[in-house]
Structure formats: C-alpha cells, structure tokens
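## retry 2 of 3
previous attempt timed out at serialization; input unchanged, resubmitting
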Amino acid sequence: MKDSYSATKTRSSRPGWSITFRHPLRRDARGKPGLKIRRGLNTTDDATADELVGQLNILLSDRSWWTADRRSDAEREFSPQIVAAFFDGLDEGRTMARTSFSAEAVQLDTELRKLYQQRQVGAALELIREALEKAHRDGPSDITCEEFGAN
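## retry succeeded, writing output
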C-alpha cells in the first residue's frame, strides 16, 4: 500500500497559521518515513493559509517533486515558505527511489536478524544472495519493502 501525504493548517499559542505535514523523504527518530514537520506560514489570513496548504498538497501528491533536484523548479511554482518547508534538509540527488532502496536494506537487516536468532544460517545466506542478485540486476528501485518481499 502506498502512503499518501497531506498538509493541514494549524494554530498554536503564537499568532498566525502554521502548516503541519509528514515529509515523505525524511525519517522520524525510529527510522520510519514521514517525519512530522511544522512550519510557520507568516500569515494570519485564513485564505492565504489555505492557498499555501494547497500548494504543499500539490508537492506531496506528486512524486515527481520528491527530489532535491527539483527545488529550483519549485521556487518558480510555489511560495518561498512552502519550498523551504518541503526542500530544506534534503540532499541534492536524494530521491524517493533511493529512500525506498534504503528501506529495503532495513527490511533485509530485520529478516537477517530473525534468521540469525533462529540459527538458520542457510536461509540467511540465501536471503542475502537473492537480495544481492536483485540489487545488481535492478539497481535502486522505487518499490516498497512490502513489494520487495513479494518478489
């Protein structure tokens, strides 16, 4: 199942609106994708805040924006605070495909630890061999961990 991401406007004890969303490329403290981000929108106007939320939802709904390489394109399309909220902290060249590939490595590590604890060395070696063959054949991919296990 693919995760969907969306933004909402929120208020806090500070004046004005903030925007809150889970970032598809950033990981939380437990290593899961979807770090919760909260940024001030520098406006007290409801309509302006709604417009900015709409802009971020466009970024979040279209995976083609999910790379730091698209920042300059986004700067031409979206307001500066939306571009900063989404792109600040991303490395150049980092894409969703690379993030998914890293998630596959975490999944592989989890499976290997289980097999090691169960003393199933042969099964662990076969899992490593299959993963290496797949990585060599396909390279980084945009499949999820669930899809990786099904292949």
